[in-house]
């Protein structure tokens, strides 16, 4: 069983009859995963015994080789990863404030979610 499933099992489920359900817990990258390129690998190989860790990435950035995602100007430290609880909605709400019971439910699980390291929420909907 994955870590996300273990965490999900520790969160109280939504009330019976809710128009939303807990879907999964997953770590997501914001705004996107940091993209490594060949120059990062070369610097890691030449100066860090092949270890492509944070030190090698920062050295690459100092040498002018940042994230290789198209048009990205963010540093490695500006790319964030956060543990996210996905709450599946029965339909596209337009405004999350209009989803019956959602706000009250999120408030009721807030402390538990924080204690489990959840840093954000995502609200996909059924098609």
Oligomer: single chain
Strand content of the residues, in percent?
15-25%
Strand order, biggest sheet?
1-2-3
Whole-number tally of structural domains: 2
Biggest β-sheet, characterized? 3 strands, mixed
Binned, the helix content reads 25-40%
First-residue to last-residue Cα separation: 27 Å
Average pLDDT works out at: 94
Rg result: 19 Å
SSE string, helices as H and strands as E: HEHHEHE
The helix count comes to 4
In short:
The chain is α+β, with helices and mostly antiparallel strands and 127 residues long.
Q: Can you give a write-up of this model?
A:
This protein is an alpha+beta fold and 127 residues long. The chain folds into two domains: 3-30 and 79-122; 38-78, no CATH class. It is built from four helices and three strands, in the order H-E-H-H-E-H-E. The protein has a three-stranded mixed sheet with strand order 1-2-3. The longest helix has 14 residues, at 102-115. The mean pLDDT is 94.
